[in-house]
Amino acid sequence: MTPVRVSIVGVLASVLLILVVLELVRGRRLKERYALLWLATGVVLLVLSAWRGGLNTIAGWVGITSYPPAVLFAVATLFILLVLLHYSTVISKLTDENVELAQRIALLEERVGRPPTGPR
Amino acid sequence: MTGLRTVAVVPAFDESGAIGRVVGEIRAAQPGIDVVVVDDASTDDTAAVAEALGATVLRLPFNVGIGGAVQTGFRYALEEGYERAVRLDGDGQHDAAEIGRLLGPLERGEADLVIGSRFVDGGGSYRPPFGRRLGIRVFARLVSLLGGQRVTDTTSGFIALDRAGIELFAREYPHDYPEVEATLVALRSGLRLSQVQVEMRERETGASSITFVRSLYYIVKVLLALLVASLRRYPRLEGARR
User: Fold this and answer.
1) Facing A102 at nearest CB: one of B56, B61, B79
2) ipTM value of the model?
3) Closest chain A residue to B68, measured at CA
4) Stated pTM of the model
5) Hey, are the CB atoms on A105 and B57 less than 8 Å from each other?
6) Domains plus CATH for chain B?
C-alpha cells in the first residue's frame, strides 16, 4: 500500500506544477499550445497521487507489488519523455522555417539591390 | 550550346582565397552562363571578391550549412526562370572546364540530373583515403539499391540540373551533408539520372569541412536519411522535356 505521506507529497507537487504552468500561461510566458502537455502531466500525476486505490490497482496490473508509488515515477518519466519528444519536433520545425527565412532574405536582398550595411 | 539560360550555383563559406579563381574559370569556360555565389555568412570577404568579378551574390544572414546554401541557389534559379543549373563548390575542387560535359546529357534530353562522378568506369585519378573511399562506395551501393539505378558517386557536389531538377531541389533539399540523400530523392521522384566522369582537384586553400568526429555524424545521419527517404513517398515528376 502507498504510504500516506507519499500521496500527500505527490498531490502537493502536482498541484504546484499545475499552478506554475497556469501562471506562466497567464503571464504570456508560455503558449497554451505548449502548456497542454504539462497540464496533462500535472493532472494525471494529481489523480494518481490522490486516488490511492487506483494507484495500487494499476501497480498490480503492471506487476509492481512491493512499492506502488513506483508507478508515479514511471508515469512522470513517460510524460517527461513525451514533452521532450514534442519539443524536438518543435525545434525541427523552427529550424526548417529559420533556414527558409534566411534563404528568402538572401533572395530578396539580391532582388532589392544592396543588402543594408552594418554588422554582419 | 543551345540558347537555354543556365546558371552556375557556387556555395561558398570563407573561400576568399579560392572564390575569385572559381568565378573567373567559370566565366572563361562558359561565358554564356550566369554565376551565382551563395555566401553562407562568410567571415571574410568572399562575397565582395565574387561580386567584384561580376557574379551575383546571395548573402545568407547566418550560416545555414552547405545544403541550405545550395538550395538557396536552386531557388534563385527557379524564381529567375533558368532552364539549367550547374552546381560547383566554391573551393575550386571542381574544374569549370568540365561544365560543358556535365551539361551534355541535359542538352541531348537524356537526363534531368547529371552527376559529375569520380568513379564512372573505375577511371579517374582521384584516390581518397581508404576510409573515405569505402564510405563513398557503400553509400553508392545503398543509393543504387534503394533508388533502382546504378550510381557510382553519390557524394559528388558537381552536378547539373534541368528545369525539373531545379524545381525538385528548390523544394526538397537536405540541409546538412545533402548530396547522398538528394541523389536518392531525385531517383525516387523519377528524375532521369546520368553520370559523367570528372576529375576532382585537391583543394588549394581553406580546410575540408570533414573531420573525424563529423564523419561519424555524417555516416549515421546519412544512413538514417536514406532509410526514411526510402520509406517516404515522393510525387513522381515527369522528366521535363521543354
Assistant:
1) B61
2) 0.88
3) A99
4) 0.86
5) no
6) 6-231 (3.90.550.10)
